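DUF4440 domain-containing protein
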Amino acid sequence: MRFVLYLILLIAPVTVLRAQQPETAIKALLQQQTRGWNQGNLEAFMQTYWQSDSLVFIGKHGPTYGWQKTLDRYKQSYPDTSAMGKLNFNLLEIRPLSSEVYFVVGKWHLQRTAGDLEGHFTLIIKRIKDAWKIIADHSS
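Structure:
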């Protein structure tokens, strides 16, 4: 009996650590995204997205498919650092759908001299080749 209890106490922290690692990586991904945006670097911001024609971004203009088309849409909507402002995320929920796929809900806020913008987002984030990438983004 002591052996079983000892084994559980030994394994439990490892299990908890494994469960936290994806959430930590996802938070780091979104911090990377914020840094790129706040530096006025849309290409750095887009490195957090899956570089695939299967990427889907849904915004106020409807769905955009593909990494390059999503980058082009961002460049059109935010042509300079003044239009971009400073980005801040508030994460509301990070929920595993599987060990390799997570559902994320949050709020975004842009502080700008032309007037602040804000809204909500849902993301599907997937581990692809040992890196977490946004494969679907619905921001409104």
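The two ends are 55 Å apart (CA to CA).
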